[in-house]
Write a structure and sequence with these properties.
Largest sheet: none
Oligomer: single chain
Helix content: over 70%
Shape: rod-shaped
Radius of gyration: 30 Å
Number of helices: 2
Number of strands: 0
Number of domains: 1
Length: 73
């Protein structure tokens, strides 16, 4: 088993190097798609928060206007 992993000179075998390279490539691709999904989700959350803040602001302005109208009567 050890003879398959190491050559006679003690160097890491080509198979192990290819396996490590494949693992690095797969993890890089997975990280790219993860970051892309997080970025897209963040944009959706930001848009939703802006819509909620705008709706609350409009509602607050309407209530404030009604209170001012009742006080000035």
């Amino acid at each position: 088993m050890i003879n398959k992993v190491y050559s006679e000179r003690g160097q890491i075998s080509m198979e192990l190097a290819i396996l490590i390279l494949a693992a690095v490539v797969v993890s890089t691709i997975a990280a790219y798609f993860y970051i892309k999904e997080v970025r897209d989700t963040w944009k959706q959350v930001d848009e939703s928060v802006n819509n909620v803040v705008s709706a609350l602001n409009n509602k607050t302005m309407n209530i404030t206007k009604k209170i001012q109208d009742n006080i000035l009567k």
